[in-house]
Amino acid sequence: MTNVTPFPAATPGQVGFERPELQRIMDLYGRMVAAGHWRDYAMDMGRDAAIFSAFRRSAERPEYRIEKRPALRNRQGMWALVGEGGAILKRGADLHNVLAPVERKLLRIVED
User: Fold this and answer.
1) Interval 4-62: pLDDT, tens
2) DSSP letter at 10?
3) Which one of 9, 27, 31, 82 is least enclosed by Cβ atoms within 10 Å?
4) What is the rounded distance in angstroms from the CA atom of residue 61 to the CA atom of residue 28?
5) Within 10 Å of residue 57's Cβ, how many Cβ atoms?
6) Is the pTM of this model over 0.90?
């Protein structure tokens, strides 16, 4: 009973979306659902990145992934829009600019 076990060292916290960021992403998701294009989403929050994935159908690969990687903040920008094939479509420091290609696609879907 005299053995004292030290408390484990603090591990780095996980990366998550802040409220305004998630509000912007969910607003876009809601409009895509209303247009009948997206049907499901998933969020993954890990040590290095927070990822929002949007699906046309649940059984497929995500059509788009919106990734937040704070480690890249000072280099390429912490936001990335990744396409279905895994190619990075847009990268930047501002979420609004990174979501612009999806916003344009939404305008085309609504106009049809």
Assistant:
1) 877 665 556 888 899 999 999 999 999 999 988 889 999 999 899 999 999 987 677 88
2) P
3) 9
4) 19
5) 10
6) no
Decide: 81 and 102 in contact? Cβ < 8 Å.
yes
Distance of CA 15 to the CA centre of its chain: 11
Q: Where are the beta strands (DSSP E) in the chain?
A: 40-45, 50-55, 64-68, 79-82, 88-92
pLDDT, residue 1, reads: 60
Cβ neighbours around 111 below 10 Å, total: 6
- Find tokens 């279905």 and name the residue: 84
Q: Burial of 12 by CB count in 10 Å (0-12 exposed, 13-18 middle, 19+ buried)?
A: exposed
